[in-house]
Amino acid sequence: MATAIVRDETATGKAIDHWPLTGLPDRVSARELVRLRVREEVARFNAHEPQHFRGLIQPTDTEATLNGYRVAHGRRLDWEQQADAACAAFERNGFVLLVGNRQIEDLDEEIDLTTDPDVAFVRLVALVGG
């Protein structure tokens, strides 16, 4: 079993957050890595029920704030819905996935976490008016 060090970064490379994602297979597709990351962050949110969700993808019916996404009190998030949205966002270039020193271009690409355990999710901001 492998452990990935997951980082969220801005487009300029500024780290937003990082944490270990443990219990992963040594080799995993990018799609499965995204889904496992989202499952973990949703599980943490649902267990603690904070007011803000700090995840990769904005859940439906939430408001974006400086602290994440404001979620109605008592609402539980569906990790599968969030994971599907994250995979769709990747396909639309909503974020970039970097493993080691390379960019992952396809969700079906296989990643060897024993050689490249550093995983960065770089959120891209849509330009207005363009």
Describe the SSE topology.
Blueprint: E1 2-9, E2 15-24, E3 27-29, H1 30-48, E4 52-53, E5 63-65, E6 68-70, H2 79-91, E7 95-99, E8 102-104, E9 110-112, E10 118-123
Parallel strand pairs: 1-10
Antiparallel strand pairs: 1-2, 3-9, 4-6, 5-6, 7-8, 7-10
Helix pairs in contact: 1-2
Structure, explained:
By secondary structure, the chain is α+β, with helices and mostly antiparallel strands. The chain has 2 helices and 10 strands; from the N terminus they run βββαβββαββββ. The chain has a single domain (2-123), classed as Ubiquitin-like (UB roll), CATH 3.10.20. The chain has helices spanning 30-48, 79-91, and strands spanning 2-9, 15-24, 27-29, 52-53, 63-65, 68-70, 95-99, 102-104, 110-112, 118-123. β1 and β2 form a beta hairpin. α1 packs across α2. The longest helix is centred in the N-terminal third of the chain and has 19 residues, at 30-48. The chain is globular.
